[in-house]
Amino acid sequence: MRLVLSCHFLRVFNFYLRPKSIRASITFWKSQPAPLSSVVKKYFRLVQCKDETCLSKRADHLRAEYSVDTKSSLALSDVWSLIKPHFGWFLAAIISAALVAVVNIQLPLFLGELVDKMVQIIKDQSKGVASNLNIVKPEAVKLLLCYTTQALLTFCYITFLTILGERMASDLRVKLFSQLVLMDMSFYDSQKTADLSNRLNVDVEEFKSCFKLVIAQGLKTVAQVTGCFLIIIRISPKLTLYTVAVIPLVIGIGTLFGALLRNLSRRAQAQFSAASCVADEAFGNIRTVRACAMEQQESRLFEREVRKACSMQEILGMGIGLFQAASNFFLNGIVLSVLYGGSIFINSGEITPGQLMSFLVTAQTIQRSMSQFSILFGTVIKGWTAGARAFQFANLQPTIRNDDGVCIPYNTLFGEVRFEDVEFAYPTRPEHQVFERLNLTIPAGQVVALCGPSGEGKSTITSLLERFYEPFSGRVLLDDRDLRTLNLEWLRGQVIGLISQEPVLFATTIEENIRYGRPGATHSEVMQAAELANAHEFITAFPDGYNTVVGERGVQLSGGQKQRIAIARALLKDPPILVLDEATSALDSESENLVREALDRAMRGRTVIIIAHRLSTIRNADLICVVKNKKICEQGSHDDLIKRKGVYYNLIKSQSNATL
């Protein structure tokens, strides 16, 4: 079995180390299974279950979305950007770690001197015990001081390193999160929430652990090995040759294994992201999972993805273990070569027994340091890959910047919106064009309704108005000013208020959810907005009133209550333009009446854009625009459109049995 497993690994490693190793290796792991032994086949065997076709398609889709990005790499400049603000702690950690290495180097020398003194005592037994103790006392004191200094310095460098690592990880998390929330909507259309969370938490944590190990063990190991080599060269240059002969071989093995292990680490982390996505989707849609009795299927899918990730980690661990085993085998040869060569040089009188002891302990220090380095190698591979994944997103820049552009003075803002020859397709689906030469004017202070068949782009119009996306051609104007010239924070934060079908609430108090529309608002202003939104009465009925925590996504509230809080949030910032995206379609009749009354108050004196599927809710709109075939095909009042007996007439007829 060992022979079969070894042969398999030799075949795999030989494949990965060919010239086009990275790209070829990805293809290998995607397209194989090649003939494997029964021992290794278990790492690729998927769990058999019912509904296999459905689960396979979803699993394949997840793996496609979490495909390995071999282009992402971690630059030293990225690492330096994290170190620079905390350079004092970094310097203190390096100096203390280097001093520990210096002290460790001195120990074999003092130990060798002590051995020589003891050999001298053994040869000359004429002196008394007190005299013998005086002979060894200086070396014993030196050793005691060394051990004490070593302990203090170890405490210092671990403390400094912990502070440095935690602050760097915090900075990286803040930088990554701050950059992610600024990214364009097209970025989020192509990403999974679970993957972003993994990069923010798991990858940053692995990078922090890797960095701390590099300082704590890597630099200390380098310093110790360098110092120990200088010492053994001083003791016996000839004997040093026996020691260094194996070092190039270990370095060569590490270099060859590096490309393979980095690629395996990328694939394993990507697979764990896919598995996390399964869990994230299941927990986020738990009501749907329960309603469809899909608990077992979700568990099987999660098990499948976790097993696959586990298999990749096992193979990665075997690769790291094989490297460590080979390294240790050759490094242990250092001790044998020292003993063999040392016995020859003692007989010839070139070194003393104490010098051989110093040389042997120093050589063992080199051997232990190199062994530690081989163990560190695998952790560094994982951490460096994780850091590359984190910085890949931390270094991204949005194409639509929030802080550029000008603001229109509030007293000169009317709220007229105009679309001129707009052409647009979503970046994730560029082949599917949503609009072709769309032209639409929304007069200031009027209620304009957008309707039409599903999937025609009604909500896309509001997304372009909020400048979540850029049109491919054409312009969107506010009071004759191109949106691209306006400040986005001002546009979204003060000009446009959005009330959607699914109001989004945060896991905090009702007051903070309302104040989210205007963080500087007072408590009385929050209450006033709640009263206008018909929310004050039910809020004060809670024991904690406005301090009631609504739970994740407002789970403690009903649909109508959440909607009224969302209306209060929009009213609090008093926007000149109000967008209602199916704001009442998911409510029962009682809740809809309360929400409708609140919306009627909210719409007064503003430019209002209503997106509706239930056409009965837009009969009183000043202007109704029908979106179909990538453009506005009809517009006018309800009565005008009914008389034309066109698309709007047919939509009304399909939704109502009333006589038209």
Automatic annotation (TrEMBL):
Q: Does the keyword Membrane apply?
A: yes
SUPFAM superfamilies xrefs = ABC transporter transmembrane region, P-loop containing nucleoside triphosphate hydrolases
Q: GO cellular component annotations, sorted alphabetically?
A: mitochondrial inner membrane
Statement: the UniProt record of this protein carries the keyword Nucleotide-binding: yes
* Membrane topology, record value: Multi-pass membrane protein
GO MF terms held by the record: ABC-type oligopeptide transporter activity; ATP binding; ATP hydrolysis activity
Coiled-coil parts of chain:
none
InterPro entries associated with the record: AAA+_ATPase, ABC1_TM_dom, ABC1_TM_sf, ABC_transporter-like_ATP-bd, ABC_transporter-like_CS, P-loop_NTPase, Type_1_exporter
Which residue ranges does UniProt annotate as crossing the membrane? Answer: 87-107, 140-165, 213-233, 239-261, 315-340
Q: Taking every annotated instance into account, which residue ranges of this chain make up the domain ABC transmembrane type-1?
A: 91-382
Cellular compartments annotated: Mitochondrion inner membrane
Could you name the domain of life of the organism this protein comes from?
A: Eukaryota
Any one Gene Ontology BP term: potassium ion transport
Keywords, ordered alphabetically: ATP-binding, Ion transport, Membrane, Mitochondrion, Mitochondrion inner membrane, Nucleotide-binding, Potassium, Potassium transport, Transit peptide, Transmembrane, Transmembrane helix, Transport
* Principal cellular location given in the protein's record: mitochondrion
Could you say which protein family the record assigns here?
Belongs to the ABC transporter superfamily. ABCB family. Multidrug resistance exporter (TC 3.A.1.201) subfamily.
Q: What's the protein name?
A: Mitochondrial potassium channel ATP-binding subunit
Q: Which organism is it from?
A: Angiostrongylus costaricensis
